[in-house]
Amino acid sequence: MSEHIADAEQAGAGGAEAVTLPELVIISGMSGAGRSTAAKCLEDLGWFVVDNLPPSLIPTMVDLGARSQGNVARIAVVVDVRGRGFFDTLRESLTDLDTKGVTRRVVFLEASDNALVQRFESVRRPHPLQGEGRIVDGIAAERDLLRELRGDADLVIDTSNLNVHELRAKMDAQFTGGDEPELRATVMSFGYKYGLPVDADHVVDCRFLPNPHWVPELRPFTGTSEEVAGYVFNQPGAKEFLDRYAELLSLIADGYRREGKRYVTIAVGCTGGKHRSVAMSERLARRLAAEGVETVVVHRDMGRE
């Protein structure tokens, strides 16, 4: 894990002493999307977690952690639109942290409108922004307020189809371990018939390749099998596509590293998310791993048919 050293005035020391600034994770996102679960996961991993902290107090919290003599090395704060003047102070606070050299990341929890409505209705609670309107009105208002923050997030997690245990597993996968990798990629296969993944940074379409679904002897298998993978990559253009797209991602990965972006989700789609996208995702993940990118493969829709 990278550490930034700063000079801080110590009370009674009469001078400056080198201290280690704590690592910071800011958890935000849609109400009902799982912010509390994500925060609890980090707490279980040993992070010092503060819920509903006003953005203006984030630099103060980091300063307090820096004075703890290493006792508070990792801080996670949950910020949301319940705090007044949310965006009036958040950008200023983030700029302040960057100036001090704080290692910070923003985790954004996302979910579909349908999923959020069902969750609020199940607990019989109003959305914090709906006022005299409906739940969907509050969701729309919050989504508009958070649009800029979502665009700047280092990690976006779509919880629409995740239960609590699955969300915890995703957080564990991202934050468990020793040294942080320079770049971590999730390669996700999906089926267009089930909708685009909302947390994808890049989307690529494999429907230009012949569909193994229409080959009777291949239909029961998935893209993880040698039979289907062999069929897919024997098609004209398949290997060339993999080579050129891997080269493009290598170029993009270098840029992400320079910009300090740690996470990227690459969604690879076909019609049903069972054959072509699965085979292409597996090969693409191997290429990225060979380039030194820590890679996780997720097959979102495999098994749904």
- On the 0 to 100 scale, the average pLDDT is 86
Flag low-confidence runs. 1-16
Number of DSSP-assigned strands: 11
Give the helix proportion (percent range): 25-40%
What does the largest sheet look like? 5 strands, parallel
What sort of overall outline do the alpha carbons produce when their principal axes are compared?
Answer: globular
Strand order of the largest sheet: 4-5-3-6-7
What would a concise description of this structure say?
This protein is α/β, with parallel strands linked by helices and 305 residues long. It has helices spanning 35-44, 58-66, 86-100, 113-123, 135-145, 147-152, 164-175, 226-233, 238-259, 276-290; strands spanning 5-9, 16-20, 23-29, 48-50, 74-78, 104-110, 155-158, 184-191, 202-205, 263-270, 294-299.
Structural features, described:
Helix 1 packs across helix 7. The strands form 3 sheets. The chain has a 5-stranded parallel β-sheet, sandwiched between helices. Strands 9-10-8-11 form a 4-stranded parallel β-sheet, covered by helices on one side. The protein starts with a strand and ends in a 6-residue tail after the last strand. It has 305 residues and is α/β, with parallel strands linked by helices. The chain has helices at 35-44, 58-66, 86-100, 113-123, 135-145, 147-152, 164-175, 226-233, 238-259, 276-290, and strands at residues 5-9, 16-20, 23-29, 48-50, 74-78, 104-110, 155-158, 184-191, 202-205, 263-270, 294-299. The longest helix has 22 residues, at 238-259.
